[in-house]
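Schema walk-through. Below, the input block comes first and the output block second. Nothing else is stored per chain. Lengths vary across the set, and this one has 221 residues.
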Amino acid sequence: MSALLMKSPFRTGSIIVIVAGAIMFFLGDFTDMEGMYMIMGPILMILGILFLVTGNFSKGAADTNQGRILGIIMMLGGFLGIAGIFVPGMGSIVSIAGSVFVLLIFLIWPCFCCQSQKDLSSQVIGVASSHDKISIDEISGITGLDVKVVRESIYDAIGTGRLRGKIEGDTFVRAAATTTYAAPTTTTREREIVKVLVICPYCGAKTEQGIGKCQNCQADL
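--- output ---
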């Protein structure tokens, strides 16, 4: 129990809230506020189940420091709800105070869960994109997140195009940056030199135009 409490206070708090709701429902008959406990008990059980289910699906958010704090507040609310049954006189106020704590967590948790998931995903993407090659375990060690959470974040980021790369085995390999090199398109026009040959009327030899004498017989052209 202590190991579970230290590892995941949020899920532990969820279980305590469920237990508190059940105790309030079944033992509320023996108090002066029977009707109140018959209503509050089932409500706490439903909230505790919702916390437990969403906490398991959003382990990254539940296992953060903020998630642990919310779990501790849930534990406090659950214990107060139970204690109120056994406190004579003002017990109902104690139980109501505990239920209010749990209701506040219910209002805070959805917004916190969504924002936390985005932050954790950005954190994983930042670590992965800063390495050419890094294993899931290494990312987990750097971020402090569960390996399963890291793996799911990597696959989601690759699928949505927020992270360029691929998974090889259990290692993320970043895609090499594609550099497009545009070669200068300079067109060099070479002047075509045409040689005009002149036939010597004396010996028939061909001599390049512009030369005054035949290169064969030295006659004037």
